[in-house]
Amino acid sequence: MNNHFRWLIIALLLCCSPFSYAGGIVLGATRVIYPSDQKQISLSIRNSDGKKSFLIQSWAEEDNKKSRNILITPPLMVMKPRRENTLRIIYVGSALPVDRESLFWLSVKSVPEKSEALAESNTLQLAVVSRIKLFYRPDALRDDPDSAWQALRFSRSDTQLTVHNPTPFWITVINLSVGGQAIDNVMVAPRSQQTLPQRVNSGDIFYQTINDYGAHTPKTRGAMQDAAAIQP
């Protein structure tokens, strides 16, 4: 049997193999706000599946690696069918900037139990990882996070658009359009600016953002200004 034929058979077997998907685990929020004056916060987690149990592993990340500054407890647990539990989130690191939010990511991996029928077969089980934003918010901030999206400003250089965020909050811009052209979503760090990689048309700018509760803010016309006049 030549190598090409052997790999074709392997590919067909993989395509026809049964899969068991780790669905059913629901987090209590799509993003988490951690006020700095709180010793810990909590996030509910629920197994909505009526038959399967899941092994749950949870951890925090920063800069694309596991964080030593955020402790998630319990880090490992079993979720029985139709049960709910709570993840406790505790900041244990050194002092963070007090003039702006800091961004972490909360990851929750769920692995379904293997039934007796599947245990006797060559079945590939997939673990599902839910990843949501975790914002550490200094208590010293006096700005209103609910109206931060209104402070966004835009500037243009030739065919490139830059989003300016003068607020101390991370802002996720969605449903952004320029002259009717849809632009990819972008998350802009506090007191900074983000130049979009797409070439943009001329015309009016419209956008929405995502608030603390995961809801969309009203569709708003963006304010275009000279980049030199915008304070970071």
TrEMBL record:
Pfam family, one: PapD_C
Subcellular localization, as worded in the UniProt entry: Periplasm
Claim: Cell wall biogenesis/degradation is one of the keywords in the record: no
Listed GO CC annotations: outer membrane-bounded periplasmic space
Organism of this sequence: Duffyella gerundensis
Segments forming domain Pili assembly chaperone C-terminal: 163-217
Protein name: Chaperone protein SfmC
Highest classification ranks of the organism: Bacteria, Pseudomonadati, Pseudomonadota, Gammaproteobacteria, Enterobacterales
One GO BP: cell wall organization
Family membership noted in the UniProt record: Belongs to the periplasmic pilus chaperone family.
Domain Pili assembly chaperone N-terminal, first and last residues per copy: 24-141
Signal peptide per UniProt: 1-22
InterPro entries to which the protein is assigned, alphabetical: Ig-like_fold (IPR013783), PapD-like_sf (IPR008962), Periplasmic_pilus_chap (IPR050643), Pili_assmbl_chap_C_dom_sf (IPR036316), Pili_assmbl_chaperone_bac (IPR001829), Pili_assmbl_chaperone_C (IPR016148), Pili_assmbl_chaperone_N (IPR016147)
Keyword field: Chaperone, Fimbrium biogenesis, Periplasm, Signal
